[in-house]
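Database export, one record per block. Field names are fixed; values are copied verbatim from the stored entry.
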Amino acid sequence: METKRKALGKGLEQLFSSEALDIDQLEKEIVGNASQEEIVNIRIDMLRSNPYQPRKKFDESALMELRDSIIEHGVFQPIIIKKTIKGYEIIAGERRVKASKMAGLETIPAIIRDFTDEQMMEIALLENLQRENLNAIEEAKAYENLINKLDITQDALAKKIGKSRSHITNILGLLRLPKEVQEMVLYNKISMGHARVLSKIEDEEQVISLANNVINNRLSVRELEDKSNNNVFKRKVAIVKRKTNRPNEYKYIEEALEEKLGTKVKIKENKIEISFVSINDLNRIIEIINANI
């Protein structure tokens, strides 16, 4: 039997009002504070995706692994949903829903909570950013959506999701690419590094030609940079060196690391400080630096 819907509560409201929201902590709070009666079995055919879900493609092999785990052990953690006129919208746990459906389940354990549209957008984006890396184009569109819907600045968004401002700016710059080249990024035909270089070139035909050159000749990012530095290519974005009141001999290194890692980096007192918002975000950074742990 369906239980009465429950509002977020003080603890979760505090999480949403903090600078950086941790999706793992959010789910931990909801599941940990839910009574046994609040965990209900919901028919899978009554569930709809979060309308703000940025991910368009799901890793089929990862879904198959999750399906096999569900067949053997069941659904380990309830999903979180919101009641709507047409049924329920998935707030967190869409992969569990898809894998459960593949496993032949008709119902799935769930906790019903009330969320605002803004909170649903934040959760959908952060679940993918912190647990599964979004494709760069999906990430860019999600950032653009949040900025427009929440009417916030890039700085405010960077603080809220625990990323560097330069990372936000670079990712959003990919939306200037021709649709054809965005598709190449979406389907991993060219890398984020290639796309970032191409996004700074003005002529769309030249961008498309260079993108095809990258694919056909397997150009590295450095080789693409060398080609794009030719005066033939007019820059869409002028490179302006920003003045700073605080001298920092390591500023250029901080910016390079922030761009590489997609998070805030500070160098001071002969130490490098790398920020992360969750254990999954830390694992993402470890994979990028290829640390053998």
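Remark 1: Confidence is low (pLDDT under 50) at residues 1-5, 7-16, 238-246.
Remark 2: The beta strands are 39-43, 47-48, 79-84, 87-92, 107-112, 265-268, 271-274.
End of record.
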